Predict the 3D structure of the following.
Amino acid sequence: MYVAYHDDEWGVPLHDDQRLFEMLILEGAQAGLSWITVLRKRDAYRKAFDRFDAGRVARYGIDRIERLMKEEGIIRNRLKIEAAVKNARTFLDVQRESGSFDAYIWQFVGGRPKQNARRTMKEVPATSPESDAMSRDLKKRGFTFVGSTICYAFMQATGMVNDHLVDCFRYRAVQKAR
């Protein structure tokens, strides 16, 4: 599962708002856990969160949050679930303001993937000046679970930065996908 995710998804430039919302929520859910834990629960998350339809998630109330707290297939952390609902509302605000979440979020890398040339995993940072700026702006707008480390992981996952190692077969493929 993890290999398929790496080979097919991770680091490929993503511009679909619904998928960007999904990754934002999943990266927040991952906080303090391993990515494989979230990856194994992704299908359950898609079902529980209406396939990450931000408009629907934004309308979740207390009753829906309580049902999600009982959903065994997802991470049942109240703060993370409430953050997903709050972030959906704020996500919709950003879409209205910017025309799309894609247009807003990609501004942090100038609209194009930042091409890194890492040779070892030790060279891959947990944050960057861009993720710091993204985190500050998202928080200012009211998003939660969007610290700089979460934002950098989001940037990696959505192809905003190419952090495939230079000897990885995906490195050049992602360079071409921009």
Q: What stands out?
A: The mean pLDDT is 96. DSSP finds ten helices and two strands in the chain.
